[in-house]
Amino acid sequence: MTDLETRIAQVAWNSDGLTPAIVQQWDTREVLMLAWLDAEALRRTLTTGRTTYWSRSRQEYWRKGDTSGNIQRIHEARLDCDGDAILLLVDQTGPACHTGTRTCFDAADLEAVDGLAVPESDAE
Amino acid sequence: MTDLETRIAQVAWNSDGLTPAIVQQWDTREVLMLAWLDAEALRRTLTTGRTTYWSRSRQEYWRKGDTSGNIQRIHEARLDCDGDAILLLVDQTGPACHTGTRTCFDAADLEAVDGLAVPESDAE
């Protein structure tokens, strides 16, 4: 195996052959989105320097930005301690979210998903 | 339903009743770990102000820090645009990772999972 294939083989894929990828803007450290990778999506991401994900709803690969122009270039990719989550540090062009917001967690315009409640007091 | 229950009902749980939670240090914006929540783990997290997760391997709840002392206090919890990922902004006491490193993605001591390769050139 190539060195790349050895590294891809370290990932502990789930029963669907997928692992979640946390996508973070490399310099500001904003968390932009969560997406899913299979081995081929990870291979394409690491060999092209642009993120390719697996769409669970459409059951197909999608290269981020091909439709919107809002591409992500890879700065760094890290595997977690037990191999079942990946952190992608990227440089995001424009908004990451299909709703037009910078991040998928920036749902200021979507009252229904405008964050979850957190109690004022966190006393145990 | 209480307001809290209304919000919990917004989450698009997967077929196992779980959703991934990205856990980020609220001020430095380090991504600490990825963990899994079900509705009850989210409820406990939001009502106590301390993170409780669902362990897929042990099939039980675990409140972060009960064994290690390395607790996480919640600052903010956000749902993503399509409701199937949660971002938890926390204040992490000590290391987040069971290996003793600050984050689960800081595998400097684990050669086998010391990051994935990224090509020098990202030309398409």
TrEMBL record, chains A, B:
It comes from Microbacterium murale. Zn(2+) binds at residues 81, 97, 104. Its main location: cytoplasm. Binds 1 zinc ion per subunit. Binds 1 Mg(2+) ion per subunit. Its EC number is 3.5.4.19. Mg(2+) binds at residues 80, 82, 84. It catalyses: 1-(5-phospho-beta-D-ribosyl)-5'-AMP + H2O = 1-(5-phospho-beta-D-ribosyl)-5-[(5-phospho-beta-D-ribosylamino)methylideneamino]imidazole-4-carboxamide. Pathway: Amino-acid biosynthesis; L-histidine biosynthesis; L-histidine from 5-phospho-alpha-D-ribose 1-diphosphate: step 3/9. Coiled coil: none annotated. NCBIfam families: PRK00051.1. Pfam families: PRA-CH. GO terms for molecular function: phosphoribosyl-AMP cyclohydrolase activity. Belongs to the PRA-CH family. This is Phosphoribosyl-AMP cyclohydrolase. Its cofactor is Zn(2+); Mg(2+). Keywords: Amino-acid biosynthesis, Cytoplasm, Histidine biosynthesis, Hydrolase, Magnesium, Metal-binding, Zinc. Residues 33-105 form the Phosphoribosyl-AMP cyclohydrolase domain. Homodimer. Catalyzes the hydrolysis of the adenine ring of phosphoribosyl-AMP. It is found in: Cytoplasm.
